Fold each of these.
Amino acid sequence: MMKAYVCIILAILILALANAPIAAEENGNWEERINYTLYWGDSIDVNGSLITAHDFSKAKPFDVDTDYVMLTILSESSEEWNAMLSINNSALPDSKIIKGRLNITALEVVTGNDIPSPYTKIGVSIFNVTTSEADSWVNTTLQVSKTKLKNANIDERAYITIQLHNLRGSNIEDISINETLPENLILDPEIEDIHIADLSSYSKEVIQYSVKALYPGNYTIPPTEIRFVNKGITYFQYSNSTNLIVHGPYINATKTVKINETDPEVLDFTVNVKNEGDRAAHIRVHDEMIIDSKFIDGKTSANLVIFPENTTNLSYSVHMNSIHSYMIVPSAVIEFTDAKGYSGTVRTNRYYLNDIFENGELDSIEENYENIPAQMNTTTGPSEDAAINADIPSYGNIRSIRDLVDTTFKIINEALSF
């Protein structure tokens, strides 16, 4: 009795070992097997792969142990494999591993004439790739580096180079390169996602693109994401990050208004201009007075060179004949040019004058512009200037008369000083 019991235990152990995935002992990363029943023509989707019972051995008057089933396996990337499996056929295996990803084992094959349709029972195990193992495999498969050619000026392109190196003796296919840029840095020209169809074994691929900055500054370009598929598994590899310094002037300007402390009919204006970049610029500041006002004293225009991190102010006062609701305080305009010829225009926000508190502060200041950056990186082309000026409402003859007066006084002062 004891001998029979031992034999039963041994038989169970042998059966269990026979049904275990072949590669389980080698790496221990196969998930628990799941069993399925497939009738002739049936399909199941297992982790993105379609397994179909394509055909069976010829049916006989009764079922035999040497029957087999022919399976077709179709991957997400349209790769196709075949597997002929049998339980007791010495010429055919009872299991097959597909691309190191699926382990399919035949548990039962039934093909007799006394049933409506042949069918098979199979067990499927999925290879589970852990994050650490995936990272280790990727690092020994694909090497990625990113470099910049050199730092750039605000009106220049900066060139970024990405190098991919296949470290293995097999091709890497279907590589997608996804680049993420920090705010105010754009691709120039604008391009879509970069794609490489095939990277040969041990070969290198170099990709170069250019960027332009909307504003000068120190930019950190994040790591580039590389995505590719191997044996139905999607992997990600990342490059290093890189720093890019963009040189140039960065002119910021604000315009404020207050009621004069001694005369409630007088408004005091201040235009503050600061160069937040790392290059000097020549600026021409011109402020337009509010309508129905009379200039008293101060300065409404200036021509000077402003160095990095330096600030200059224009202050002046005007007498108001009357103050009405929703009067507009026009923008101050600052035109700038650096030593390399890069030029642009900055306009302060316009304001609505609503009511005035007893403490002399403006009750409500509402910006009339929306989504307009403080610094417009525009060159001096006529079409671009026209587009900018179209956004600024005209005040009739006020602007042209003030320009004429300023120009006239400048000529007179230069003649007297001469």
Note: The CA atoms of residues 283 and 304 lie 6 Å apart.
Amino acid sequence: MAGYLKEVNIKSDLPTAAEAIKRITYNIRNGKAWGCGAIKIIHGYGSTGKGGRIRTETRRYLADQKRKGMIRDFICGENFSIFDESTRIAFEFCDELRRDSDLERHNNGITIVIL
């Protein structure tokens, strides 16, 4: 059974990159415990000069978590498309992703984490 989609806005109060990573870690751990299939992280894309660092650090951290086996995968917002193989596989773990408003929008201010 596919888990639900949790949305987390980590950029709302312009945290430091280190604080943003703490929030992501918290949500990954709790998302798994709560039966979440995927987490949509809203980190922004750097228009304020702050989001760019958060996006970069978020994706570096998620690559490390994937390598360690802590998450299944992650999809950069700009690749979140039905034409992307990782996205199609992600639908199996979280059917709600099929109806997400950012699907096909190539939004580099988000990242989808597959738990």
Note: The domain at 4-114 is CATH 3.30.1370.110 (Ribosomal Protein S8; Chain: A, domain 1).
Amino acid sequence: MTFAVTALTVLCVIGISLGQMLFKKAALMLPAQPSMLDWLLNTWLIAALVLYGVTTLAWVWVLRVAPLHLAYPFMGLAFVIVPILGAIFLYEPIAWQTIAGGALILAGIALASSAG
């Protein structure tokens, strides 16, 4: 994969990860018994859906120019990025198991993407 395609692939993963933060914020803003109006007027949810839409279009472009076996392993980065964002923005704890799992995922991505 070229540098530009790799960069866009990583941006897609970052977009998906940020979308998860927006979905979490949307969930936190919903009342215990949300009405349809609560869902429709949830600006966090709307932002998440827009971000996911844009990211999906970019991902389709990536898949158009990159082999799936090289591009898809990068999605594993979301398993590393999301907990980090959760810790920074939502003050969620990160357990040592999450760090160890993230390290294994990074090793797997490096291995899979070196297949060329």
Note: The radius of gyration is 16 Å.
Amino acid sequence: MKKSIILALSAILVVSSATSCVKEFLDIKPRGSDVATKIEHYQGLLSSQNFMSYTSPTYFHMGEELCGDAKTLERIQSSEKDKGLFAFKFDRDPFQSEDACYEWEIPYARIYTCNFIIANVMNAETGTDAEKKEILAEARMHRAFYHYFASIMFSKHYDAATAATDLAVPIVTKAETEPTVKYERATVKTLFDWVINEMKESLPDLPDAWKNNSRCTKAAGNMMLGKVYWYMGDYQNALTHLRQAVTLTKNLKGSPVTFNSYRNNHSAWYNASKKYYTSYTTNGYNPESLLLKYIISTTMVSATSAAFHYVKTEYVQMYGEGDLRAYLLAPSTTDATMMRPVARTDHNFCGDLPDLYMMLAECEARVGSESDARSLMLEYRKARFDTDEHAAIPASVSSKEDLIKFIVNERTLEYIARGVSVIDMKRLWNDPLFASKKANFTHPIKGGDTYSVTSEDQLTWKIPIKVFKFHPEWQNN
């Protein structure tokens, strides 16, 4: 963090988005507009490293595919404030101290930047009106998406029957820094209605052509809006925008976006013993990133490759013959019977091509065309398996219901130990197709206790202490 501002909402230090391409514009000042004057300044904010990434997520520790060993048990018995361990135990209040809560702090820091851009870009001294409207649309799209992302762990899942009274996160539309500013929690319905409206109004002014993977095109905008509908369970509306996202991506002018073939790069990514990958394309350079917003987890494995968490044996075995994704797991240095994620796990939480294809495939299977869903999954799997024969969808996936379950399982395998199974479980908790999935949402520890999710409430965190103390009038989760 180079510079910081105090964001009243969370009363925390947040990064003020230094730009890499505009040397004279290093940060946003809390008050006044004497720094950002040119269109390049606003373009630099949207392209800055700070705007698109963060590290050490807490919800990664909650994945249904995870388990523990003696070292995990030792840490649980010796640590009193480790938020990752509290999350691993499915505690609804993992932030039991004033430690950073990046699932809250990072979205609202980015929202501050978006609000600054939205309030000022149309007054930039340079640039055409069309360029300014384009940047304004991008900032509104990002702002809406970050509100959605903040809601995932701190709001109940969208339920049409209760959304008008269930509490979500605050909607913040001004770049305010006064510590006396008070905010109210929106209802889930109000929040999602606002997010969808913001995204819909932004779409027409988004650029058609590719610039770089930090900039939001119409293709990426449709992906983001489709993702929100998909998460809500509105598969018909999601289908419309996700189909459009795939079509636009394939015709995106100047775009390098394509599937990253594990088959073609397999030999280059091996470690010396050829047992797992130690070098592979990360999100920052990944050609699969349509819009880059990524999380880097450096807390799943220590510097000595001693795992903090492991992948359950049954999930390791789900990688079939020729599945090159299995090489993203490595042998443990502390327990030879366990497999761990490779040392550094990155995840594009906004959406890359595998995410886009699997969301669309699920929607096609549910309300569209099962054959289209299979075609999408096959195109994706060919980039992950050593041969076309191994990439074929197993014959056991014979019904529509089998296909939907298969797609959800594929998401877990693609994003192993990246928290995707947590989001999927939250959105699918009341889906009768996945009733048995809830029983698998456990974290067994070898020689210790087994922690389980027994209520969907455990998938909604309480407001972090350092935020709640500035808003004691809020009703907590």
Note: The chain has one domain: 4-56+66-259+349-468.
